[in-house]
Amino acid sequence: MTVPLRVRALLIAGAAALLLVAFSHDRFWLQFLGKAMITCIFAMSLDLLVGVTGLVSLAHASFFGIAAYLLAGLSNRFGFVNPLLTLPLCLAGAALLALAIGWLSLRASGVYFIMVTLAFTQMLHYFFNDAPGFGGSDGLYVNQRPQIGPLDFSNRTASYLAIWTALVLVYLFLSRILRAPFGHVLAGIRGNEQRMLSLGYPIGRYKLVAFVLAGSLAGLAGYLDATLYGFVNPAQFSWRQSGVLLMTVLLGGKGTLYGPVLGALLLTFVEHYGEQFTSHYNALIGALIIAVVLFLPGGLAGLLRSARD
Amino acid sequence: MTEVLLEADGLSRSFGALTAVDAVSLRFMGGEVHAIIGPNGAGKSTFLNLLSGELRASAGRISFKGQDVSRATPDRISRLGVGRSYQTAKIFGELSCAECVWLAAQSRERTSMRFFRPAEMYPEIALRADRALQACGLQDRRLRLARELSYGEQRQLELGMILATGPQLLLLDEPLAGLSHGEALSVVALLREVSRDRALVLVEHDMDAVFSIAHRVTVLVGGRVLETGTPGQIRASAAVREAYLGTEQP
Amino acid sequence: MTLSLFALQLLNGVEYGLLLFLVASGLTLVFGILGVLNFAHGSFYMLGAYLAYWFAERTGSLLLAMLIGLPLMVLLGLFVERFAIARLYARDHLSQVLLTYGLVLLFNELQRSLFGNEVHGVATPPLLAFRIPLGDQAWPAYRVLTAFACLAVAAAMRQVILRTRFGMRVRAGASNAEMVEALGIDVRRIFSSLFAAGAALAALAGMLAAPLTTVYPGMGEDILIVSFVVVVIGGIGSIKGAFIGALLVGLSDTFGKVLLPGFSSAIVYALMAAVLVFRPRGLLGQPA
């Protein structure tokens, strides 16, 4: 899918603006926008499954959470602080979990796939909430944030820049993939699975690879989240986490990659200020989700596209 | 040269108490157009689904060029060189014609697990796709979304997609259904073109078309083979006429 | 484990399974026939439980609470179907998941505003507040009632679906809604009644379960996930499968809690994983 010129301009301007914020040293904005960018990565990774391939997965929170907890574990148990060591390990953990959950879930089709992904995520939620040694419902602190040479990621600016770099790289990476043969196959799977099979594509394999790829990127988001906040908790595996992320993808415009980025940014603002605005905050989000499904199924990206016509 | 491309041996398929396909044994030769006709409910589509691997047979064997494919998945059968069209054209509605054909052409690559080079940089795929678009006559519609095409054009597109996979044998399920007379004529012409160096297995109700391009015709009734012969033999057969009960006089 | 303890757990497991069946069957009916995956199904269970608590507190009778609450839930089901679910019939899975999830959030907020965040106990009806001795154990009489109530509902459901004209229309609608419409039968009516019935089933289960599980904010989500597991284990679109799946889950969960206390919740998921590996279409689902 070609990105419209005005959107491309918007994205570059946005990236530049976000980069400038890094030098503001403003505590609040660094953390707030850092979180927003992490959500952008998280949302794009889900879009690969939902928007591009047509697989509605509720398991994404699992991979985010496992990578975060792995970082906490590696740091607290083994004292590993070098991100060159912890990042690959955490990503590998997320990838392996995605392989296991993906392989099992993809054996079910249609709505059953969706149910199974939710069930497995809930299982992990209960595990990290109840099993001893994982901090229970309070979660865990990451004793030592990643640190390599002079770069200490407990420093907000350093974290922020790392997140910014990751966001840009992930966007470019996924854009590349979409234009490659692999991306075309995923689009075909979304279009008509039966036709893809009768064209000779072993679609099961491609779905699994997409699932693992998406899960690994979700793990990256989780790793960055644990780095930014220095804290992990079972709520990261919650159903709500997956549900709101799914909404972000739809709100932004599924399948476009840049749509979910916009959706994530918007939602981070809504989440933050909504909580201050009303105590019936969940009803607000619920109403928003319903409104988007009924009235804006094409999302913000759809709006941007029709605005240029 | 006529070799046996696809062979069904005692093929049966039941759904509970209903036997849709009953011990059908047929041979499909290279370079031949073999039509399968019969009254509604005769099991023709089910039979095609068995051949394409989309349904598992309850009994019997299928072999392609001597290889047993009775338990092969649809994608494996496609890769062996079999193309399949459906009663309602299965295309990618949200993609353009060019993209639809591209996906079909790309399927012949050794693998599509390629992540970094944009697809356009694979000239072999582009060539295959282009040729297929030309063959099915849709070049000027190449940028149109598939769902915007007319019904007849969608059928052409589907044929183009199958051709892009370079098949030796095509399984076609009522390719002329729902087409206007003019559209049907162009599709028949296309099929005639396509059949020159390929085998076609054609399930159809349009008798004119069947008799104008088929080399051999099989009549299926109640899931069983009633008769197989040349179009002339089938036309003259009393048994066949009786089977149709005067609803469709060949 | 003594024989009576075994018998007790067996009965508990069956009873839990029957409650699960009530919830899971509603879920299966709705997406088997209406084609909609309804995440708010658990909310109906939760609301049923809260209504039972609220009316029971005020009238002193759980039975009266159920008699008042159930019609209310049917009305709610009809309302939700008319204004939300009906818009989902032709739409993709993502839209269905998200819209019904939005409903979950709304219902949660509704529950919170009306009933607060605390956990509430519901008293067992005094008539049934005794235990039936079972060797050296004893089984609460209320659970006997619950089990029988669920069985009665299951039997009634079977009768309706297999023997009545409405059931015939439902089954016809499941296989070919367009055809049914062409025959002049109002598919819309069938769909809304079916959805309301599904909501009522979930609510009834919630009401019956209220004295046993207490009434708490997250109960809708919890039961929904377990229903999903039941449906995946039991099989695609099969009510019989939902029954078997529910009993399996009820029994393994109950025995799991007793035999492997730390891992009890994992057992149910392990069961689901095993079904996915060996019979991906479920125990009673049709093979491809």
Helix content of chain C: over 70%
Assembly state: heterotrimer
Head-to-tail CA distance between termini of chain C: 42 Å
CATH class of chain C: Mainly Alpha
Principal-axis shape of chain C equals globular
What is the H/E order of chain C? Answer: HHHHEEHHHHHHH
Query: Proportion of β residues of chain C?
Result: under 5%
| Low-pLDDT segments of chain A | none
* Biggest protein-protein contact in the assembly: A-C, 41 and 36 residues
List the helices and strands and how they pair.
The complex is a heterotrimer of chains A (309), B (250) and C (288).
Chain A: H1 5-21, H2 27-53, H3 60-78, H4 83-105, H5 111-130, E1 140-141, E2 147-148, E3 151-152, H6 156-179, H7 181-191, H8 193-198, H9 203-229, E4 231-232, H10 239-252, H11 258-277, H12 281-295, H13 299-307
Chain B: E1 4-15, E2 18-29, E3 33-37, H1 44-51, E4 59-64, E5 67-68, H2 74-80, E6 82-85, H3 97-106, H4 123-135, H5 151-164, E7 169-173, H6 181-194, E8 199-203, H7 207-213, E9 216-221, E10 224-229, H8 231-236, H9 238-244
Parallel strand pairs in B: 3-8, 3-9, 6-7, 7-8
Antiparallel strand pairs in B: 1-2, 1-4, 4-5, 9-10
Chain C: H1 3-34, H2 41-59, H3 62-83, H4 93-115, E1 131-134, E2 137-140, H5 141-163, H6 165-175, H7 177-182, H8 187-213, H9 219-234, H10 239-259, H11 264-278
Helix pairs in contact in C: 1-5, 1-8, 1-9, 1-10, 2-3, 2-4, 2-8, 2-9, 3-8, 5-6, 6-8, 9-10, 9-11, 10-11
Short descriptors:
heterotrimer; A: 309 residues; mainly alpha; two-stranded antiparallel ribbon; 13 helices; C: 288 residues; ABC transporter involved in vitamin B12 uptake, BtuC; two-stranded antiparallel sheet; 75% helix
General description of the model:
The complex is a heterotrimer of chains A (309), B (250) and C (288). Helices cover 75% and strands 3% of the residues of chain A. Chain A has a domain at 28-236. Chain A is built from 13 helices and 4 strands. In chain A, helix 2 (27-53) runs parallel beside helix 6. Chain A has helices spanning 5-21, 27-53, 60-78, 83-105, 111-130, 156-179, 181-191, 193-198, 203-229, 239-252, 258-277, 281-295, 299-307; strands spanning 140-141, 147-148, 151-152, 231-232. Chain B has 2 domains: 1-81 and 167-250, P-loop containing nucleotide triphosphate hydrolases (Rossmann fold), CATH 3.40.50.300; 91-166, no CATH class. Chain B contains 9 helices and 10 strands. In chain B, the strands form 2 sheets. Chain B has a 6-stranded mixed β-sheet with strand order 6-7-8-3-9-10, with helices on both faces. Chain B has a 4-stranded antiparallel β-sheet with strand order 2-1-4-5, covered by helices on one side. In chain B, helix 3 packs parallel to helix 5 and helix 5 runs parallel beside helix 6 (181-194). Chain B is globular and about 60 Å long. Chain C has helices at residues 3-34, 41-59, 62-83, 93-115, 141-163, 165-175, 177-182, 187-213, 219-234, 239-259, 264-278; strands at 131-134, 137-140. In chain C, helix 1 runs antiparallel to helix 10 (239-259) and helix 3 packs antiparallel against helix 8. Chain C starts with a helix and ends in a 10-residue tail after the last helix. The mean pLDDT of chain C is 88. The A-C interface holds A 50, 56, 58, 104-105, 107-108, 110-112, 114-116, 118-120, 122-123, 126-127, 130-131, 239, 243, 246-247, 250, 254, 280, 282-283, 285-290, 292-294, 297 and C 31, 37, 84, 87, 93-95, 97-99, 101-106, 108-110, 113, 221, 225, 228-229, 231-232, 236, 262, 265-266, 269, 272-273, 276-277, 280.
